Here is the input.
Amino acid sequence: MQVQAANRHAMNKYRDLMAAVALVRTALDEAKKLHKKIQEPGETDWRVPGRDEVDGAHAKAAVQLTSFHAATVKWEKELVSKGWRV
Here is the structure.
């Protein structure tokens, strides 16, 4: 009985993880729309990142999220093959 509860817990945690990944992807997509509104910093605004820096950071985050998602899908296949046994 405890094993079934642990397996259910694992399934719920995985579902929560996938929902969080989808939420982050949505946030990245929405943030991409705002990049057009970024103004280039002036000479005295050296602490403000420019559009190129923001685009680069966004692209890096998107690549890392895609890589993380691929790893979680691989992990899901392993869990399914084991019947979600922990």
